[in-house]
Amino acid sequence: MSGEEEENAAELKIGDDFLKAKCLMNCEVSLILEHKYEQLQQMSDDPMNQVSQVFEKSLQYVKRFSRYKNPDAVRQVRDRYQLAEFELCVLGNLCPETVEEAIAMVPSIKTKGRAHDDEAIDKMLNDLSLIKKFE
Amino acid sequence: MFFHIVLERNMQLHPRFFGRNLRENIVSKLMKDVEGTCSGRHGFVVAITGIENIGKGLIRDGTGFVTFPVKYQCVVFRPFKGEILEAVVTMVNKMGFFAEAGPVQIFVSNHLIPDDMEFQTGDMPNYTTSDGSVKIQKDSEVRLKIIGTRVDATEIVCASNLSFCSLLTYNGYNGIVGTFYSGSCAQGKY
């Protein structure tokens, strides 16, 4: 499993499968899972019996750590700053407040010769916090 | 991190399921088989959200079973090495503490807990800083960095070795308390 050895989210090495896949922020997962849970509720009286433990735990987790109510607005930030899906989702899940924090969480935004200086990152964080404020 | 991903699986179906409801039968069997499982490659399959397509069935010689290749979209949870995520503490002891991020179990060894945090025994065992400003106990929310993962093939339990990257304990508050520690990396075993 050589692929496994090289895996490092800090350098955005998460494998081709997942780089191409759509990353989901906790708030988005929460929307999906709750929708599915409601569907199950309509079909049977005791939906908690129907779902797997993995589902139950995930639902609890994303409900607890949901940050935004409007994930689409966060997606717009991604287009503006050319972030990878994974990077945006980490930022969206953790909501760093300072540039230093953001770089520590997502070191890859500073590498690869991308035009992200501290100023740009600060602006990006500002945009994100505005979304949160006005939703 | 959660992902929305397309996966493929060959479903073997007993002939008694054939008929008008073939498609529904395939889908419900797929959900039963796949949801809640865990693999090293794709992580935990949390929920199937849609079926992309069901290919042509192939009758197996001698048994009458038919194999259908099914492409489906699903939400998976896959922890990555180096990823930073939030987790809820489930158990604290002198070896370190356990936390859960969705379906994933995480262990943080006491070697990786910042040095200024001391273990306190008692009713609610916890790790506390010397000035008492930050406390990690059951139900605390912590931010941590994953330094390794291990998947058990026999059980649906996934384990991670953890490093403390940042210790931002909220203890149920909304704001961020605590300071940002940069991570030291060592191996712990769970």
TrEMBL record, chain A:
<dbReference type="Pfam" id="PF03874">
    <property type="entry name" value="RNA_pol_Rpb4"/>
</dbReference>
<dbReference type="GO" id="GO:0006352">
    <property type="term" value="P:DNA-templated transcription initiation"/>
</dbReference>
<keyword id="KW-0539">Nucleus</keyword>
<dbReference type="InterPro" id="IPR005574">
    <property type="entry name" value="Rpb4/RPC9"/>
</dbReference>
<dbReference type="GO" id="GO:0005634">
    <property type="term" value="C:nucleus"/>
</dbReference>
<protein>
    <recommendedName>
        <fullName>RNA polymerase Rpb4/RPC9 core domain-containing protein</fullName>
    </recommendedName>
</protein>
<dbReference type="GO" id="GO:0030880">
    <property type="term" value="C:RNA polymerase complex"/>
</dbReference>
<dbReference type="InterPro" id="IPR038324">
    <property type="entry name" value="Rpb4/RPC9_sf"/>
</dbReference>
<dbReference type="InterPro" id="IPR010997">
    <property type="entry name" value="HRDC-like_sf"/>
</dbReference>
<dbReference type="InterPro" id="IPR006590">
    <property type="entry name" value="RNA_pol_Rpb4/RPC9_core"/>
</dbReference>
<feature type="domain" description="RNA polymerase Rpb4/RPC9 core">
    <location>
        <begin position="16"/>
        <end position="135"/>
    </location>
</feature>
<dbReference type="InterPro" id="IPR045222">
    <property type="entry name" value="Rpb4-like"/>
</dbReference>
<comment type="similarity">
    <text>Belongs to the eukaryotic RPB4 RNA polymerase subunit family.</text>
</comment>
<dbReference type="GO" id="GO:0000166">
    <property type="term" value="F:nucleotide binding"/>
</dbReference>
UniProtKB/TrEMBL annotation, chain B:
<dbReference type="GO" id="GO:0005665">
    <property type="term" value="C:RNA polymerase II, core complex"/>
</dbReference>
<dbReference type="GO" id="GO:0045948">
    <property type="term" value="P:positive regulation of translational initiation"/>
</dbReference>
<dbReference type="GO" id="GO:0060213">
    <property type="term" value="P:positive regulation of nuclear-transcribed mRNA poly(A) tail shortening"/>
</dbReference>
<dbReference type="InterPro" id="IPR012340">
    <property type="entry name" value="NA-bd_OB-fold"/>
</dbReference>
<dbReference type="InterPro" id="IPR005576">
    <property type="entry name" value="Rpb7-like_N"/>
</dbReference>
<dbReference type="GO" id="GO:0031369">
    <property type="term" value="F:translation initiation factor binding"/>
</dbReference>
<dbReference type="InterPro" id="IPR036898">
    <property type="entry name" value="RNA_pol_Rpb7-like_N_sf"/>
</dbReference>
<protein>
    <recommendedName>
        <fullName>DNA-directed RNA polymerase subunit</fullName>
    </recommendedName>
</protein>
<dbReference type="InterPro" id="IPR045113">
    <property type="entry name" value="Rpb7-like"/>
</dbReference>
<dbReference type="Pfam" id="PF03876">
    <property type="entry name" value="SHS2_Rpb7-N"/>
</dbReference>
<keyword id="KW-0240">DNA-directed RNA polymerase</keyword>
<feature type="domain" description="S1 motif">
    <location>
        <begin position="79"/>
        <end position="157"/>
    </location>
</feature>
<dbReference type="GO" id="GO:0000932">
    <property type="term" value="C:P-body"/>
</dbReference>
<keyword id="KW-0539">Nucleus</keyword>
<keyword id="KW-0804">Transcription</keyword>
<dbReference type="GO" id="GO:0003727">
    <property type="term" value="F:single-stranded RNA binding"/>
</dbReference>
<comment type="function">
    <text>DNA-dependent RNA polymerase which catalyzes the transcription of DNA into RNA using the four ribonucleoside triphosphates as substrates.</text>
</comment>
<comment type="similarity">
    <text>Belongs to the eukaryotic RPB7/RPC8 RNA polymerase subunit family.</text>
</comment>
<dbReference type="GO" id="GO:0003697">
    <property type="term" value="F:single-stranded DNA binding"/>
</dbReference>
<dbReference type="Pfam" id="PF00575">
    <property type="entry name" value="S1"/>
</dbReference>
<dbReference type="InterPro" id="IPR003029">
    <property type="entry name" value="S1_domain"/>
</dbReference>
<dbReference type="GO" id="GO:0006367">
    <property type="term" value="P:transcription initiation at RNA polymerase II promoter"/>
</dbReference>
